[in-house]
Amino acid sequence: YSDLNCSDSMRSAEYEAQLLKQYPNELRIVYKHRPLAMHPSAPIAAAIMEAVAMQAPDKVWDFHRAAFNPQTAMMAMFMGPQVYGQILHGMGLDLQRLQDDANGVEARRRVKEDLAEAESFGFHGTPSFVFDGEPIKGGGSPELMMETVTKELGR
Q1: Nearest-CA neighbor of 131 among 110, 152, 154?
Q2: pTM, rounded to two decimals
Q3: DSSP secondary structure letter of residue 128
Q4: Where are the beta strands (DSSP E) in 87-146?
Q5: What is the DSSP code (8-state) at residue 2?
Q6: What's the rounded Cα separation, in Å, for the pair 142 and 138?
Q7: Before 43, cis peptide (omega within 30)?
Q8: Is the separation of the CB atoms in 7 and 73 below 8 Å?
Q9: What residues contact residue 59 under an 8 Å CB cut-off, 6+ apart?
Q10: Nearest Cα to Cα of residue 109 among 54, 64, 149, 153
Q11: For residue 70, what is the enclosing H or E element?
C-alpha cells in the first residue's frame, strides 16, 4: 500500500523494481492506494492513477514511475496535483476523459476500497506490504519487505 506523495513509498518503489528484476517469474506486484491525510494531493493522485488504469492499463506503471520521480514528487508537494498534467500530457491519453474518470465515482471507489483493505490489515502508514496474503509486520520498511520476499522466494 502506497501514497504517491510519500517519500518512503517512493523509496520502496526502488526496492520493488529490484525484486521484480530478481524474481521476474515468481513475483507479481499489485499496487494498492493508501493516501495519507498529511498529503492533501494524495487522494487526487490516487484517483488519477486509477483513471489512467481505466483508460490505458498498460500505462499505469509508466505513470507510477513518473509520479515517483524525485523532482515530480517534490513539485507535487508544493504545486498540488496539477503537476501530474505534465506527465499525462506526454502519455498520449485522452485528457478530458482522464479528468472525468479521475473525478468520477469509479476511480474514487477503487481508492476507497484499497484504503479500507489497508486498514483491515492494520496499516496506518506507507509503505505497507502484503506477501502471499499475509501482512509483513515491521512498520512498512522496504528493507524488511525485500528481506521477506528474498527469504521466501530464495528457498
Answers
A1: 152
A2: 0.87
A3: -
A4: 130-131, 134-135
A5: B
A6: 10
A7: no
A8: yes
A9: 52, 91, 93
A10: 54
A11: helix 70-79
| pLDDT for the residue numbered 139 | 62
Residue 78's closest CA among 5, 146, 22?
5
Measured CA to CA, the distance from residue 139 to residue 32 in angstroms comes to 17
pLDDT value of position 58: 95
- The cell for 151 is 527469504
Best CA proximity match to 61, nearest among 25, 31, 104: 31
Q: Which long-range contacts (CB under 8 A, 24 or more apart) does 70-76 make?
A: 70/10, 73/4, 73/5, 73/7, 73/10, 76/4, 76/5, 76/41, 76/45
Q: One digit per residue, pLDDT tens: the chain, 155 residues?
A: 999 988 888 888 888 888 889 889 988 889 999 999 998 888 999 999 999 999 999 999 999 988 888 777 767 766 767 788 888 888 999 999 999 999 999 999 999 999 999 999 999 989 998 888 888 866 667 788 888 888 888 75
| DSSP run (H or E) holding 53 | helix 42-55
What pLDDT shows up at residue 53? 97
